[in-house]
Amino acid sequence: MNDLKNYIEILCFFYLISTVIGEQVQVVYPFNLISWSNTTQVFKFEVLNIDHYFQPVDIEWQQKKCQNFKKRIVQTSSVLSNVSKELTVPIPKIKSTITEDRNSFYRALSFCIFGLEDHHLELREYIADAMFVIYDLSIFMKGAKTLKDYCSARNVNLKGTEAFYTEILTASYLLNTCIYIYSTEHKIWQFFYKNWPNYSLLNMKKKKCIYLTDTKNYIDVVTDVVDNNIINDVELLDTENINKYV
After folding, report:
1. Pairing state of beta strands 178-183 and 209-215?
2. Which of 33, 69, 83, 138 has the most CB atoms lying inside 10 A of its own CB?
3. DSSP E strands: which ranges in the chain?
4. Beta-carbon contacts of residue 164 (< 8 Å; ≥ 6 apart)
């Protein structure tokens, strides 16, 4: 019975993989603010035509960030890795890692840094405060007054307020770490990093990054992406073998 269960799980995994194989990977970044409200933020995006890699933050990064926030590592985060490979599409997960609520972006950051979600409210406060001291953020929002109005109207420091592009960009500055977010709706990676919008000459070869997915404003962590050679594995999968278990 356990063998059957394991095999069914394998079949489910390969089925999920097959749903994303063949998707073209494109990376964009928010370039020009068009409009914003309490419930949405609309930007014009530009394509970032540089080489992109899947190189998640590692234990050394986690240790440094915990020191910066004067916290101890509770446990090693499952997103930490020494892997380095071409950035493709995230491997879909049967079960989410991060709690599904309006704090999910901050929960995901807490999970990456501390190994658990518990510090998401503190990170929210850090990010809300940092928005007023990072000069590029006022340009990003087309003026300091617009930025102030945005933060006030949305109550970005309050629990339950979803993170929009401005908060995500602020987090990348605060953590000095690039953040990739894969939109499952648009099938595209969104890129956030310091020195916005001067990304065209970036060399990402050795940069450790945070990788997340966005599904209808719910943020989850990416633990792996599809290997290019996994296509062959999917094609070679012999589903007829399940017959020996039934």
Report:
1. parallel
2. 33
3. 27-36, 41-47, 53-54, 85-86, 178-183, 188-192, 209-215, 218-221
4. 36, 40, 41, 154
Distances (CA, A) of 37 to 29, 153, 155, 161, 187: 20, 8, 12, 13, 24
Maximum distance among all alpha carbons in the chain?
68
Distances (CA, A) of 49 to 7, 29, 109, 192, 207: 40, 11, 26, 14, 16
* Domain boundaries, given as residue ranges, for the chain: 1-21+230-246, 27-225
Please state, in angstroms and rounded to a whole number, the distance separating the CA atoms of residues 76 and 222.
15
CB 62 within 8 A of CB 77: yes
Sign of CA dihedral 237, 240, 242, 244: negative
Question: Is residue 124 within 8 Å of 103, Cβ to Cβ?
Answer: yes
> Which three-class secondary structure state does DSSP give residue 184?
coil
Confidence (pTM): 0.84
Question: What is residue 212's three-state secondary structure?
Answer: strand
- Residue 232 is which amino acid? N
Tokens 């020996």 correspond to what residue?
244
The answer to whether 54 touches 211, Cβ cutoff 8 Å, is yes
Kindly state the tokens that stand for 191: 């890129």
* pLDDT tens digits along 52-103: 999 999 888 998 998 888 876 656 666 666 778 999 999 877 778 899 999 9
